[in-house]
Amino acid sequence: MPTPSDISHETIAQHLAQAYRLRVARAELLPAGASATSAAFRVIADDETRYLLKVQQGAIDPAALALCAFLHHDKGVDAVMAPMPATDGTLSTQGHGFDWTLSPFFDGQNGFDRTLSDRQWIALGKALGAIHRTQLPEALLAKLPKESYAHQWREGVRRYQRRFINGTAGDGIVQRFLAFWEEHAEEIDTVVYRSEQLASILLERPPRLVPCHSDIHAGNVLVGEGDRLSIVGWHAPILATKERDLMFIGGGVGNAWNQPRQQALFYEGYGPADIDAVALAYYRYERITRDALELCDRILDSAKANANANANANANANASAEGREEDMRRMQSLFVPNGAVAIAHQSYDAVT
């Protein structure tokens, strides 16, 4: 079965002409983020206007699309990347076995590859403040999930902890990962325990829920020229306390955004925050717990898959090995000085 990356220029031009009445001059596959289930294209219309086309297998969350459209078009939060409506008014279309969304193209790099300027930090604060203060229509509120402080990430890490006690076989990457895990086992256990402890406190409080992006790390903020930026990656918006998003500002996720001056500039734009220290610490610990679980899944499951790969799959195996090496570096980066774990501990100390 063809993947989204296999879609031809002719197919793209035909679909966009029918669904958006857009005349396409050319379409270019963007390598970043391409996978077996999704792909992104830079589409240039015959008037040279550029668009971002995303094609994916599997249903797109209509609530996420509706939220982005409401924030951008109805509330004027220009920094939110919003889908363009098709000619029938829908925010996504279907064709050739895939779901399609079209947005204006933003020319920039993500926040990991390019540092935000002072003006962009202020603009990011202003945009996120506007998002958190937005009153959503009842129909949209009903479609968004609410924070539940679920224990799935903590339980997942604990399953691996029990598994590691009895030893785990694997290749060199697995063995280095296990050695690193053992070196930091006590601190990982502390992260999981404190996440659970703080969740139990928050469950006893009546939360003040606001619309949250939920994953607004540096990779989901595109940085352009001047003070231009765009917030992307709206895969799992949620109604939660504002700290669900604010934990990323100064949180060191991806070993970025961990400087006091960056925080000061952000809050200059955001405005008075009245941060809940318990919620901030919880979300920082919970993010580390989630990352640790996902890294375990990818490193260990990929190792098993590679062991079963046949001789004709060398290219895929090599690509997977490179990805697992990157995952190993990501795990190590959690524990560097002024990294995510150290900052989460500081947040916890502020609670106690």
Main sheet summary: 5 strands, antiparallel
Enumerate how many helices there are, as a single number. 12
- In the sheet with the most strands, the strands line up as 1-2-3-5-4
Radius of gyration: 22 Å
Number of strands: 10
Helix content: 40-55%
What's the order of the H and E elements?
HEEEHEEEHHHHHEEEEHHHHH
Shape: globular
Proportion in β-strands: 5-15%
What does the average pLDDT come to?
A: 92
Detail the poorly predicted runs.
305-319
* End-to-end C-alpha gap: 55 Å
Helix-strand makeup class: alpha+beta
What does this structure look like?
This protein is an alpha+beta fold. The protein is built from twelve helices and ten strands. The strands form three sheets. The protein has a five-stranded antiparallel sheet, covered by helices on one side. A three-stranded antiparallel sheet has the order 6-8-9, covered by helices on one side. Helix 3 packs across helix 9, helix 5 runs antiparallel to helix 7 and helix 6 packs parallel to helix 11. The N and C termini lie far apart (55 Å).
